[in-house]
Amino acid sequence: MDKIIIEGGKPLKGEVRISGSKNATLPVLAATLLTDETCILSNVPKLLDTNTMVKLLKSLGKDVDWDKDKLIIMSNGKPNPVADYKLVSTMRGSICVLGPLLAKLGSAKVSLPGGCVIGVRPVDLHIKGVEALGAKVEVDAGYIIAKTKRLKGNRVYLGGASGPSVLGTANIMMAATLAEGETIIECAACEPEVEELANFLNEMGARIRGQGSPRIIIQGVKKLHGADYRMQADRIEAGTFVLLAGMSRSDITIRDFDYHQLTALDDVLAKVGVQVTQEKNCVRVKAPKVLKPVSVTTYPYPGFPTDIQAQYMAMMSLTNGVSVVRDTVFPDRFMHIAELNRMGAHIRREGGSAIIEGVKELCGAPVVASDLRASAALVMAGLVARGRTEIRRVYHLDRGYENIDKKLMALGASIKREKE
Ligand code: UD1
């Protein structure tokens, strides 16, 4: 296992290019199960999670080859409806093979993904959705087992206790592409990654409209064909670099992504005092000497993303006052508090909120990465802290940030990777 060692306080400067979106790529890869024809995806990020999805596709009857940033996905003629526990348990995103397998093969047996450190993570909405399309579903021995002759379109409400579900919407939308008749998903997730998936499915011959809004309408078709598609940039990676630039008061240009997908963050940063200027395909960040404390609450898109809550908290730990960060999407996503406190932050948790008293500086310390976005927050803290930070279990970081250490090194950071 690797660890990352950072000598903090080095000035950062230069340009960074944002990679393809992990959260858009995973369901799009799952969608290739809906056709026997070849699909080619470009701008695919090389990450642990994309590699896990590639392994899963191979186990389900696809040949998959990398060619630089492209993935070429072909059928090997031996479709398999069983998504095994070993692969699904390492990555929750694997749940989105349920809809495509069921729609294409008429049966699917997908391991329950289980919980993770950011919360319990139920799958009731995924099951409710495929049942609404007429599938018979049972949960047995840790697997979701679903069967159907042919799915039938229906109206389905996909709002849960914490709002819409991103992968739940993705799963049902994929299943409905090959169902008989019309499906209407109400309270659909509006995330750009859901929109991207719908656009890819339409390239494959699906008939979907309303993507990006809470009502998605899908007219089922008999067959989907192959498609050649370029993945959009990763808005969460982009948001992480914007926050890093603001927190470290660095002159960084962040390029090749759509800043409109970060409107909620932009709104908050303006109050913090951080100016973000847009130029064509990139943004430049200018931060004041003193950051103002600003409270945020995470919501589904277009609200403030839960996936940059930890990174924002790292920034808030260096303001001149008190702020509150509340996560309504994953109210238990606070593992990073203890580690940030080890680095001198003053943060306490009260239920689904974190109360952050800003401090003047952070100091380097040995810390442990607990999950993907928490790892990014620790890297950010390490880069601005006084002294040396050692982050263990960085495989979490490698799940979602392509070449993060190389990108940071190119900006002037003192960061290296060692075997533990
Ligand atoms: C996706 C993202 C993840 C992001 C999250 C919320 C991927 C691979 N992952 O995860 O990075 O943090 O969206 O933006 O795209 N819920 C239920 N029942 C369900 C499903 C979910 O109650 O059947 C709840 C969850 O516990 C959570 C909320 O709904 O409280 C949102 O979760 P969801 O949108 O489903 O997250 P994912 O799609 O798994």
Quick overview of this protein structure:
With 420 residues, the chain is an alpha+beta fold.
Salient structural properties:
single chain, 4-stranded mixed β-sheet, 420 residues, UDP-n-acetylglucosamine1-carboxyvinyl-transferase, Chain, binds uridine-diphosphate-N-acetylglucosamine, alpha+beta, 2 domains
Structure description:
With 420 residues, this protein is α+β, with helices and mostly antiparallel strands. The chain folds into two domains: 2-19 and 233-419, Enolpyruvate transferase domain (UDP-n-acetylglucosamine1-carboxyvinyl-transferase, Chain, Alpha-beta prism), CATH 3.65.10.10; 22-230, Alpha-beta prism (UDP-n-acetylglucosamine1-carboxyvinyl-transferase, Chain), CATH 3.65.10.10. Helix content is 31%, strand content 27%. It has 14 helices and 26 strands. It has helices at 22-31, 48-59, 85-88, 98-105, 124-132, 166-177, 192-203, 235-248, 263-272, 309-316, 336-342, 372-384, 395-400, 404-410, and strands at 2-7, 13-17, 39-42, 62-67, 70-75, 82-83, 107-111, 136-140, 143-147, 155-157, 159-160, 163-164, 182-186, 207-209, 215-219, 228-230, 251-255, 275-279, 282-286, 296-298, 322-327, 346-350, 353-357, 366-368, 388-392, 414-419. The strands form seven sheets. The chain has a four-stranded mixed beta sheet, covered by helices on one side. Strands 2-17-19-18 form a four-stranded mixed beta sheet. A four-stranded mixed beta sheet has the order 4-5-3-16. Strand 18 and strand 19 form a beta hairpin. Helix 4 (98-105) packs parallel to helix 6 (166-177). The longest helix is centred in the middle third of the chain and has 14 residues, at 235-248. The protein is globular. The N and C termini lie close together (6 Å). It binds uridine-diphosphate-N-acetylglucosamine. Uridine-diphosphate-N-acetylglucosamine binds next to helix 1, helix 5 and helix 6. Uridine-diphosphate-N-acetylglucosamine binds at residues 23, 26, 92-93, 119, 121-126, 160-162, 165-168, 189, 193, 306-307, 329-330.
